[in-house]
Amino acid sequence: MDLKTRISSFVALGKLLPQLIQSSLPDEAFQANNWFTKSELERALNSWSNILTEVNLLRWIAPYPIPEISSIRKILVITAGNLPLVGFHDFLSVLMLGYRFIGKLSSRDDILLNVLANELKLIHPDFKDLIDLTGKTQASDAVIATGSNNSSRYFQMEYGKIPHIIRKNRTSAAVLDATEDENDLKNLVSDILYYFGLGCRSVSHLYFPYGYSLETLQLHLSAFKQVDPCLLYSDNLRFQKARLSMLNTSFKDAGNTLLVENESLHSPIGVVHFSYYDDSELLFNNLNSKENDIQCLVGNKHLNPALIPFGTAQKPDLWDYADNVDTLEFLMNI
Q1: CB distance 291 to 167 below 8 Å
Q2: 186 burial type by CB count under 10 A (0-12 exposed, 13-18 middle, 19+ buried)
Q3: Rounded distance, CA 201 to CA 192, Å?
Q4: What is the pLDDT of residues 85-112, one digit of tens each?
Q5: Is 317 exposed, middle or buried (0-12, 13-18, 19+ CB in 10 A)?
Q6: Can you give the residue range of the structural domain that contains 178?
Q7: What is the CATH number of the domain that holds 197?
């Protein structure tokens, strides 16, 4: 199967994804993981459907001199399960090069990729020899493992002697300067609350200039409505409110989330941390020193060219790599 065929197969898969929303798949995924509400699964499937176009795929692979495969590499991919289809980009990357994908899927997200893999095999039967989702971690030429800071130590011990990408905990932040309009703030809310804030691209910390009024942002956060409310998120929100009250920690109740002044980048589910700055240059110097903890920074580019626009944190392109490690380049060089 040549590169052109692999591209056309994924384009065909992309066209099928919206149909899965009307199948039994959302109910099955939700039963396995109650964070995967139908609306969030629909968001993930529609997002990948929009991404898997011939234009996008060709633009993505254009910078890489992808050779015809002389020998098929075996790539073990250990996925996380915090978001629907969180391991799909690795799946796509491995197969786009014609390599064999050996998946050890998280028990929290082992249904969705199996369904998509079966659809891909129906589109082109040659994929049957390139996809192994049995969970058996057979001898591999390279490993891509995604997990927590704790699990990364195990991955390093287990797979450190072969080529590897080992991903740890990351989160995202937003920098505001009071020039934001209503649309910016509305989009920021989606950066915070889509997927219930569980992803590394979810904004968990807000940086405000001293004197910034949080009132308008609170209104936008309160107005945000999940199409399918998540009981797990609601439970976390109530727990955090009770915990902060017991600790006499000040917080601002924004309805869908709690705003807490705290310097930590990472925040608990249901909570968004915030802090103030008076010198943007010093702030970005500080953020640069934390680059290994940050997936993306959101804000208006007049503050810093590294910022991505409000509302795009949860909408990565194919060339927006996790941990800023180029997966295709890694795979081509093993």
Answers
A1: no
A2: middle
A3: 9
A4: 999 999 999 999 999 999 999 999 999 9
A5: exposed
A6: 171-298
A7: 3.40.309.10
